[in-house]
């Protein structure tokens, strides 16, 4: 007797409601619009920078060519952003740990509000704080550093008498990126599986050992991603650095003298109003370099965040 196999009944796709189609269209259009805006910015920068890319070296401001014009700017941008990150990341992780694992709930909630509020402060306010408060305070400490630790390239001196140094710009940038990094890391710590934390405490671990074995491994990729996001913010900061830094050109690791390498964003803000002709194209070319670096940094941050693997277990 032949057996017959019946195909399972086909399930018709549920019809979409008009609201679903509208929402899907708006979401797709928004994503495409972002890509178009990014592509438009890239095309504009390349088009406007092209004359400086093909111009003779003597026509570029400084008379030494485009590469030698941009290199000090790129150096100042990278050293200020990276050193600001070196200061901000440990503080951000420590603050996030305090909020999520040590502080009482009322204090943690208030401190979380303060951190979020700090992220909303305009950069010009940080610049005013840096030039009027922080810069004068650092004059005596940097003089001491120059006299006693001058053998270290960062403190070679002579110390600036005004305090408008790369060190102050780095501290200001560190304070500016601190809320961004703290917010991301705090959310990662709050999502640590509770079963992992309770299991670590159940076997006799101290609170710090529990954090080291459960919380920090879970948040490691988020810390890296938050650091990259903070680095992107520090790379593109303009007004605060322009107000604080007394830039004089050149490449120097000396952080406490009055001769400081400028940053790309601050240099564009200061030089653009008085520039014309090929000088404008040169500034836009430096902006193209900053655009490329910021884009790469944010792409790396997104890749790191997307590679985060959730721990097994219930939250």
TrEMBL record:
Subcellular location: Cell membrane
CDD domains linked to this entry: TM_PBP2
Membrane-spanning segments: 21-46, 66-99, 111-131, 166-185, 278-301
Pfam families xref list: BPD_transp_1
Domain ABC transmembrane type-1 stretches: 74-301
Keywords assigned: Cell membrane, Membrane, Phosphate transport, Transmembrane, Transmembrane helix, Transport
Chain intervals for the UniProt region annotation (Disordered): 1-20
Membrane topology recorded in Swiss-Prot or TrEMBL: Multi-pass membrane protein
Family of this protein: Belongs to the binding-protein-dependent transport system permease family. CysTW subfamily.
Function per UniProt: Part of the binding-protein-dependent transport system for phosphate; probably responsible for the translocation of the substrate across the membrane.
Protein name: Phosphate transport system permease protein
């Amino acid at each position: 007797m032949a057996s017959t196999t019946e195909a399972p009944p086909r399930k018709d796709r549920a019809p979409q409601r008009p609201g679903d189609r509208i929402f899907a269209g708006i979401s797709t259009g928004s994503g495409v619009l972002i890509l178009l805006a990014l592509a438009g910015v890239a095309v504009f920068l390349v088009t406007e920078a092209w004359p400086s890319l093909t111009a003779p070296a003597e026509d570029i401001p400084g008379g030494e060519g485009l590469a030698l014009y941009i290199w000090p700017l790129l150096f100042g941008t990278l050293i200020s952003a990276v050193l600001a990150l070196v200061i901000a990341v440990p503080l951000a992780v420590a603050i996030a740990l305090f909020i999520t694992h040590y502080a009482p709930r009322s204090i943690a909630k208030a401190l979380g509000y303060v951190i979020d509020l700090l992220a909303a402060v305009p950069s010009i306010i940080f610049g005013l704080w840096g030039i009027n408060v922080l810069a004068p305070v650092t004059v005596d400490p940097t003089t001491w550093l120059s006299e006693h630790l001058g053998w270290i390239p960062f403190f070679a001196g002579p110390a600036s008498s005004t305090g408008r140094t790369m060190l102050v710009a780095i501290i200001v940038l560190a304070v500016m990126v601190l809320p961004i990094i703290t917010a991301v890391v705090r959310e990662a710590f709050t999502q640590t599986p509770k079963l992992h934390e309770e299991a670590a405490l159940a076997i006799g671990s101290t609170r710090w050992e529990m954090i080291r074995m459960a919380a920090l491994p879970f948040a490691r990729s988020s810390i890296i991603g938050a650091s990259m996001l903070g680095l992107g913010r520090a790379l593109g900061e303009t007004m605060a650095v322009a107000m604080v830094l007394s830039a004089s050109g050149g490449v120097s690791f000396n952080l406490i003298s009055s001769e400081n390498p400028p940053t790309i964003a601050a240099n564009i803000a200061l030089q653009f109003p008085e520039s014309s002709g090929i000088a404008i194209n040169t500034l836009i070319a430096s902006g193209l370099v900053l655009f490329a670096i910021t884009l790469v940094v944010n792409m790396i941050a997104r890749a790191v965040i997307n590679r985060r693997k959730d721990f097994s277990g219930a939250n």
